[in-house]
Amino acid sequence: MWKLIIICCVPLLLFAQEKEKNHTLEWNSNFLFESNGLDKNFLNTMLYGGYISNEMKAAWINAGSEKNVIHSEISNELSYTYHFKKHNICFSFADKSLLNASFTDDFLRIVFEGNYNYQDKTLSFNNTNIRADLFQQYKISYGTTINKVNMHAAISYLLGNHHLSYMIEKGSLYTAPFGTSFYIEYDMNAFITDASRFSKFTNNGNGKALDLDVDFSIKKYDIRISMTDLGFILWNSSSRTFASDSNFSFQGVEVEDIFSFNDSVLEDNHLNDDALKTNNKSFKSYIPATIHMMVSRKTEHNYFRGYTLGIIAKWHPYMDNKPLSFAKIGQGFQESNFSTLWYLQSAVETKYLNLIPNLSYGGYSDNINIGLGVSKGEKYKFTLGTQHLEDLVNGDKAKAVSVYLKIKLQF
């Protein structure tokens, strides 16, 4: 790590004698909760408890889609950038907490209603998964301009605090009429780090990540293509891994004597269970990588200063179970629970404030979202905004809540 820092600091030593210096200190905070069907009331009840009525259960099940996605993210980042001639070097520190889950309506039915109302039916909970990560990110980046093309590259050290994930690739439950028998099968993998010392300061794993960014112009258009946070964390050997590919059949209770009965659940011929494999060993998990492309154009209008059209994709595979290949690349996009996000953004200058309106579709939801940011200042810039303005008035029915804060100081 120290060798990397020394190498990246070489440009600073070469240009330390320059009279003109430009320093930038920036703070970024971001909070996001987003769902494609379930609302904030569902999340609050799951997190903080409370009475769940049958009407609430029915409403949540009906509100969901075939694939229910919930994503939550809290991040805080502090960065320092030093600019010299056509170069710059940046150091940053970020603290991140991520939660990502996907499950079917049938899974909600099993959890909230049980299987009584679904006799002679098969409930599916295929591709049910939940992932949670706590980690810090230490990043160093270097940028330069060559032939009017701006290029940036960064490498990060990831300090992993905690990880939890459950992935059920295939799962189903069949209940026979009158409940005389039921059949359940599932293929599950789970990974959990040592939680005996649950803290932001716990070091349960180490990892790395890579950023690449290219910015250039074609006629009146500025084009930027970037990839950020392509990386992983290798969790230590005190972590626990679980794997099971099982099916289970229950045929009821046979009573021959009121004082002596045979519970058929204990009979081996009704159970085909590849015993749950539990190990204490190291494993690898990925952090969400972002692929971003945008096209911008400035205007000469007094207030309307320009517009940007962009597209964002996420790469976030469940497990490290495939070698690097086209199949692995496709797996990461499919398992991210993120649909391609398209957005249109503009910049509007007023006498006292600058406005940043935004219209987007996609992401972790399938809704059209309205964003709005408000900024003040140039050399010392303060920005506050949301990507989901329409949900601020929906209260507990909101399917998305987001707030971002940016403070930028140049000296």
Structure write-up:
- This protein is mainly beta.
- It has one domain.
- 12% of the residues lie in helices and 58% in strands.
- A 14-stranded antiparallel barrel has the order 1-2-3-5-6-8-9-16-17-18-19-20-21-22.
- A hairpin with a 5-residue loop joins β16 and β17.
- α3 runs antiparallel to α4.
- The longest helix is centred in the first third of the chain and has 13 residues.
Helix-strand layout with pairing:
Elements: H1 2-14, E1 22-35, H2 40-48, H3 54-63, E2 68-84, E3 87-103, H4 105-113, E4 121-124, E5 128-146, E6 149-175, E7 182-192, E8 205-218, E9 221-235, E10 240-250, E11 253-257, E12 260-263, E13 271-273, E14 277-280, E15 283-286, E16 289-298, E17 304-315, H5 326-334, E18 339-349, E19 354-363, E20 368-376, E21 380-386, E22 400-410
Antiparallel strand pairs: 1-2, 1-22, 2-3, 3-5, 4-6, 5-6, 6-7, 6-8, 7-10, 8-9, 9-15, 9-16, 10-13, 10-14, 11-12, 16-17, 17-18, 18-19, 19-20, 20-21, 21-22
What string gives the helices and strands in order? HEHHEEHEEEEEEEEEEEEEEHEEEEE
Largest sheet: 14 strands, antiparallel, barrel
Overall residue-averaged pLDDT value: 85
What are the segments in which pLDDT stays under 50 over at least 5 consecutive residues?
A: 1-19, 257-271
Count of separate DSSP helical elements: 5
Strand percentage lies at over 45%
Number of domains: 1
The span between the termini is 29 Å
Number of strands: 22
Please state the structural category: mainly beta
Overall geometric form: globular
Q: Order the strands across the largest sheet as they lie in space.
A: 1-2-3-5-6-8-9-16-17-18-19-20-21-22
Helix content: 10-25%
Radius of gyration: 26 Å
